Amino acid sequence: MPVDTAVVGCTTETVVHEVDARWIMAYGASLGDMQACYLDTTREAGIVAHPVFAICPEWPAVVASRDLLHPHGLSQEECRRGVHGTHDLQVHRLIRPGDRLSSQATIVSVEAKRPGALILVRIDTRDESGREVATTVQGHVYRDVAVVGEPPPPCLGVPHWPERISDRSSPIKTIKVPIGANAAHIYTECARIWNPVHTDVAVAKAAGLPDVILHGSATLALAVSNIVDHVGGNEPSRVQRVYGRFRGMVLMPSSINVIIYAPAEREAAMDVRFEVINAEGQAAVADGLVTLTGAL
Asked: Exposed, middle or buried, 18 (CB in 10 Å: 0-12/13-18/19+)?
């Protein structure tokens, strides 16, 4: 059935999480990112979460946002055809142990595209004082689903997407990252993000996949780890924004190549463009962007 644009503006209930050191450490370790700032609880400043960790408290709100679509025309079967197409994370501050976070998802856009209905979901995560911690806009494409209804008014909080990467002639760094056969199972449990297409072969094949595939957020987080290491001076607190378009699958075991392009400096920040190429030579993450505070 077509999805009605009247769903724009609908919000989920607020989901509350108590974040502890165990969760933060497990997430970093699941990526093989062993920086002391993620793992060493004896540090005077304490530990912080990986920048992409925000996806962990967001996940239940993302799942709940799908339920908002059913009263507006989307069937359960159509919902299963949804693909996470884009991810745009604004990091207001890094998450720390002891944070009590509240996340709420809002449908901010419904648009007809050639493959189907493109639905943008904004997830707002705040701390106990109401201050912003992370804001994410995820784009989901529901294949072969039409859109009906009046064009909704523009919603606040929809970012301007970065331009596509046009010049690939001179990457400054290419890092080959091995992906173990157990990578998705480890990430699922450490991140506390469960979607059976990543760990259950029967479910993955029923969805038309050749096998289980690595989470898009894990692939994105691996790229961010390498950008922080090679361009960001090993300072994850410099990460302001993470953007990417998910395209090719990452099968396991395999490897990926994180390709980093020359940063573009601007006032008090720099934009680092990147891509992640899977073992088949396809872009697993296309047109990636990490914005870092400070200059080179």
From this structure: exposed
- Could you read off the pLDDT of 184-219 as tens digits, one per residue? 999 999 999 999 999 999 988 888 889 999 999 999
Looking at residue 54, the DSSP 8-state letter turns out to be: G
From the CB of residue 61, how many other CB atoms can be counted at a distance below 10 Å? 24
State how far the Cα of 122 lies from the Cα of 71, in Å rounded to an integer.
19
The predicted-structure confidence for 222-265, as pLDDT tens digits, reads as follows 999 999 999 999 999 999 999 999 999 999 999 999 999 999 99
Rounded Cα distance, 289 and 49, in Å = 20
Residue 236 tokens read as 């994850």
d(CA 125, CA 144): 31
Sort strands 3-4 and 147-148 into parallel, antiparallel or unpaired.
parallel
SS3 193: coil
CA–CA separation, 240 vs 94, rounded Å? Answer: 10
Strand partners, 75: none
Contact in structure between 5 and 38 (CB atoms under 8 Å): no
What would the DSSP string read from start to end of 252-272?
A: SSEEEEEEEEPPEEETTEEEE
Q: Which 3 state secondary structure label does DSSP give 67?
A: helix
Q: Alpha carbon of 103 to those of 71, 123, 127, 193: distances in Å?
A: 22, 6, 9, 15
Q: Which two tokens stand for residue 91?
A: 């990091």
Query: Residue 25 and residue 27: Cα distance in Å, rounded?
Result: 5
Considering the entire predicted model, what is its pTM?
0.95
Q: Which amino acid is at 271?
A: D
Q: Are 288 and 246 in contact (CB under 8 A)?
A: no
CA dist., res. 171 & res. 113, Å (int): 32
Q: How far apart are CA 240 and CA 232, in angstroms?
A: 11
User: What is the C-alpha to C-alpha distance for residues 8 and 63, in angstroms, rounded to an integer?
Assistant: 16
For 176, half-sphere exposure in the C-beta direction (CA atoms, 13 angstrom radius) is: 5
